[in-house]
Each structure stands twice: as structure tokens, then as C-alpha cells.
Amino acid sequence: MDFKNKNYWALILGGSSGFGLATAKKLSSMGMNICVAHRDRKGSMAKIEEEFNDIKKTGVQFLPVNTNALTPEGRAEVLEELKKAMGPQGRVRLVLHSIAFGNLKLIAPLKEKDGVVKARESLASKLGVSKEDLTKAVNELFEEGVPELFSVADYPPYQSDMLAEDEDVANTVYSMGTNLLTWVQDVFSRKLFADDARVIGLTSEGNTIAWRGYAAVSAAKVAMEAVSRSIAVEFAPHGIRSNIIQAGVTDTPALRLIPGSSHMRATTVLRNPMKRLTETSDVADFIALMCTDEAGWVNGDIIRVDGGEHISG
């Protein structure tokens, strides 16, 4: 499947890793031109350039812009460079918001969870081994990929001395939530959208489930979902469809920053009907489908791409 319109562009916010990078690779392989807005330090650019070279090899036009996409100046820089690269015929078919820049602090101090310790002590006594040896064996096997041991492995480390404050939450809600609207309005005001365009944001199961340390990001995801619905209604007469994808738990750099992510991965593998984590390519494939003409009647929805993870209990 290829895009026949060679003037289509995808504007991917946060496209140097994770879902954004996977989508850039997928769409470029289908003939869509790519603009990636990312913010990375010089020391990490060697690896990122290798990934970007894969996109360039597809033969599409490729514009990476390393800037802070969360500031008015950074947004203007990206859109000005994109307008020049597109030329008079180019149009934005997709805006994908994949920026992962949020606060992962607890909102209340965490009390010690001694149930795990007691369970290991009881098991060690029953087996006639030392609790130290049992603890070491359990933790090593858990880290090596035996998810069934999640309930007796060491409890995830949380930082309880620095709790999330108003500014932390407000910045996260803007960066990973309402910033979607800011970008859509700016792309629209510059007349860069295609007549038939797609806006896609990313959410997670943390929109309805309370994960420790995820309060600010959870608020941001819900805000993005609300903003997307409004975009879907008010921009529809202008040919813009807006939807949110709820991806399953995926082993991305963003996930690894979440306290307790190793336990999240373990429990997900156990409960997902497919018995594996979601992969970035799973989500990128679906985003590509959403960019086709045939998906033009999907608007204002939250669509799960998780292999049945959400419904499996």
C-alpha cells in the first residue's frame, strides 16, 4: 500500500524514538514525506542519525528539526522550515503528537509494602533456604524475563521525598495534552493542512487506571482526549479528522521512565491475550491505516491498539 499523492507530509512531534520514530519509518516506506520535530542532545544524535538514515533511504523528502516543540519559537521554527520544504504543492496529511515530556512524581508519600518481604520469608522457610538467597534468585529471574514472579520480586523503587506540585502537573498537562490543540491551530492558520487531513494523539490505560507516579501524565492524557474531541467537531468542516490511539503497554524509552515499569511489563505479558507487549510497529501500522482515504469516516474516537489487553481484566 502506497500513498499516491506524493505531496503528502506527516508532521511528527516527538519522532526520534518510540511511536513517533516507528510511524515515521512506516509512512516513509509508503511514500509519505516526513517532518520530524524532536529535541535531543548532541551526544545522542549519532544513534538517532542512524535511524533517520533508514527514512532517507526510502526516497521521500525528510526534514528533521531538532528544537523545543513546546515553545512558540520552536513551533514557528518547525512550521517555517516545513513550509519551505513542502513547496507550494505540499500539504500536511497527518499531525501526530508523540511528545513524551511529563512529570512522574508521586502525589503522596509511599508506605512500605511489607507483604512481599513476608511472602518471601515464608517461602524461604518452607523451602529451607535463606531469605537472602531466595530474594536474589527471585529478582534475577524476574529481571531475566520470568514475569510470573512479579508478585514476590522486589517492589518498584519510588521517590517519596519529592512530590508533584501544581507547576509539575500544569506543565505536563500542556506538554502531553493541550499542546495538541496549539499545534493544530498553528498548522491550520498557516494553511498547511491537506483538504483531507488527520490529527492523532496517543493515550494509555493510565487515562482510567491510577498508576503510582502517573497522576500528572494521566491528567494530560485525559486533557488530550478532550481536546481531540473538540478538534474533531470544530475542525471537521475544514476536512480535519482527529482521533486518539490508546496503545497497549509498549517497551519504549518513555515507559522505562515510569516507576514500576518492569512490573507493568510483567503483568501485561501475563494478561494480554496475545501474551506479549504491544510493539511500536503495531501502533505505527495502525496509524498508517488511519492515514488512508478509507479511514476518512473515523473521527473523534479513542481507539485501542493493544491486542485485547484492555478487555482481558
Main attributes of the structure:
single chain; 313 residues; Rossmann fold; 2 domains; 7-stranded parallel β-sheet; 7 strands; 15% strand
Number of helices: 10
What do we call the CATH homologous superfamily of the largest domain? NAD(P)-binding Rossmann-like Domain
SS content category: alpha/beta
CATH topology of the largest domain: Rossmann fold
Residue stretches low in confidence (pLDDT < 50, at least 5 long) are: none
| Overall tally of domains | 2
Q: What is the percentage of strand-forming residues?
A: 15-25%
Radius of gyration: 21 Å
Largest sheet: 7 strands, parallel
Number of strands: 7
User: Biggest sheet: strands side by side, in what order?
Assistant: 3-2-1-4-5-6-7
Dominant shape: elongated
The percentage helix is 40-55%
Average pLDDT confidence is 91
CATH architecture of the largest domain: 3-Layer(aba) Sandwich
- According to CATH, what is the class of the largest domain? Alpha Beta
What is the N-to-C order of secondary-structure elements (H for helix, E for strand)?
A: EHEHEHEHHHEHEHHHE
Alpha carbon gap, first and last residue: 35 Å
